[in-house]
Specification:
Helices cover about 55% and strands about 15% of the residues. The protein is of the alpha+beta class. α1 packs across α5.
Length: about 190
């Protein structure tokens, strides 16, 4: 009687199946990593937009009060008492340059908003990712501020953030860009 030898058959089957199984595990880990980054970015952008929209009304009231106080103080000063040259010496810049500045013709406020909000979004993103490895170069934030916060059709704040995520899959050297946007209507009192 002749017996068939089955020595090594499990090793052969494992050698055929194990690479596909490992590739599947790595692929699933990458999908989970992408999903976590997408959820964290969405949450960070949404929270920042909500916080900013709720704090716009007190800032509007404060800026209106400061503007009224400044105009009241300046209305009592006559040009005989103080000259524009004296004011330019104190301010350190030409008033003509200041008065010629037109913020509506440039992206000055959007750039200012971006520079202020980028660290906030980065901090929230790192907290939501449970990681401190978020670099400034991999997370880009853009802010669209309304031109007028006195109520109107454009009283929305928009925050757009994009995150560059490197894939860690074997034989693949790619970077995925995840982009999320959040728009919130400013809370501006009775408007």
């Amino acid at each position: 009687m002749r017996f068939k030898s089955e020595n090594g058959s499990i090793t052969l089957e494992a050698a055929l199946v194990l690479p596909f199984f490992m590739l599947f595990i790595v692929f699933m880990a990458s999908i989970i990593r992408i999903s976590v980054a997408e959820i964290a970015l969405n949450k960070s952008v949404s929270e920042t937009a909500q916080i900013l929209s709720t704090h716009a009304y007190p800032i509007t009231i404060l800026s209106n009060q400061i503007e009224n106080l400044a105009s009241d103080k300046l209305s009592g000063i006559s040009t005989d008492i103080i000259s524009l040259e004296d004011v330019e010496k104190v301010v350190g810049t030409s008033l003509k340059e200041f008065l010629d500045f037109d913020p509506s013709s440039s992206n000055y406020f959007d750039e200012l908003g971006t520079s202020v909000l980028t660290p906030i979004v980065q901090e929230k993103f790192a907290k939501n990712m449970n990681s401190n490895s978020v670099t400034e170069s991999s997370l880009n934030v853009e802010v669209e501020l309304p031109r007028s916060i006195n109520g109107g059709t454009d009283s929305y704040i928009g925050i757009t953030a994009s995150y560059d995520l490197d894939l860690t899959v074997p034989f693949v050297d790619r970077t995925i860009t995840i982009k999320k946007q959040a728009y919130e209507r400013l809370w501006i009192g009775g408007y």
